Amino acid sequence: MKEQECFSAPAGYTGFNGIFWASSATGVILGESTACPFGNKDVLDDTKLQVNIYPNPVNQYLRADLKFAIPIKEITYHILDINGRLIDIKTDQEGQEFHPKFDVSKLPSGQYILKIQTEIGLRKLNFTVAH
């Protein structure tokens, strides 16, 4: 089953009669069983998180420098392929600055996503593995 995700909406957005929807080229999904929290859990924009991933493209180790505006209790990193399949996952505990390193040397060349998730929101960054 594909991972359910919540997406940002404009401030004050409540959907139609409390029902949220997503559209795609294949149709519209209404409701599902996923409750999406709105408010503080949002996309981590540059005011909440300064982030740099390097080198990009990468062939051995992907590094990231993260600096949050406020201390974070827990951070989870997901490496996803371009289709959203989970490749790797790791976590860090408590802090405001993080410097994770990911071994991508065994991944096939291609496009990937680094998903950074915390209690205050998430950010997705694209990177390329090139051997």
Proportion of residues in helical segments: under 10%
- What's the helix-strand series? EEEEEEEEE
DSSP strand (E) fraction? over 45%
Specify the CATH class of the domain at 42-129: Mainly Beta
Main β-sheet description: 7 strands, mixed
Give the integer mean of the pLDDT values. Answer: 81
> Looking at CATH, which topology of the domain at 42-129 would you report?
Immunoglobulin-like
Structural class: mainly beta
Description:
By secondary structure, the protein is mostly beta strands. It has a domain at 42-129: Immunoglobulin-like (Sandwich). The protein is built from no helices and nine strands. The protein has strands at 21-24, 27-30, 42-43, 49-54, 61-81, 86-98, 101-103, 110-118, 121-129. The strands form two sheets. Strands 3, 4, 5, 6, 7, 8 and 9 form a seven-stranded mixed sheet that branches. The radius of gyration is 16 Å and the shape is globular. The protein starts with 20 loop residues before the first strand and ends with a strand. Residues 1-5, 7-14, 19-26 and 28-40 have low confidence and may be disordered.
Entry summary:
By secondary structure, the chain is mostly beta strands. Helix content is 0%, strand content 54%.
Write out key terms for the chains shown:
single chain; 131 residues; mainly beta; Immunoglobulin-like; seven-stranded mixed beta sheet; 0% helix
